[in-house]
Amino acid sequence: MEEAAYELVLEAGNKGLLQSDLWKKLGVNSREGSRIAVKLEKRGLARRAKELYKGRWTYRLYPNKEEETPITWNTLNNCPCFTCVQITRCGTSQPISPIKCKKITNWINKQIVDF
Ligand code: SF4
Asked: Which fold does the domain 2-67 belong to in CATH?
């Protein structure tokens, strides 16, 4: 259901989607629609902006712009894999694995903090 909601928010683009329209399009009640909208916001997929619509306060949902930002080469600056001597032996089913690698874990964590 959240995926369908996210698709609708993406389709709405910059004009946004009223939360009440989201409920109707999904075929759910207002409580369920609110729960889904809040979840999209918490996951960073959408932002909710309070809006007075036909005399009542509601929210309009917009796709989170950061989610639409394309990945660039700068995203990979200082990635330890590019200079790692283990790269040819590293893989998810290998003894050396990105899943267990402290260097890549630390680098990813730093990217998240710096973001
Ligand atoms: S995940 Fe770790 S071990 Fe694997 S290539 Fe990258 S830095 Fe090297």
From this structure: Arc Repressor Mutant, subunit A (1.10.10)
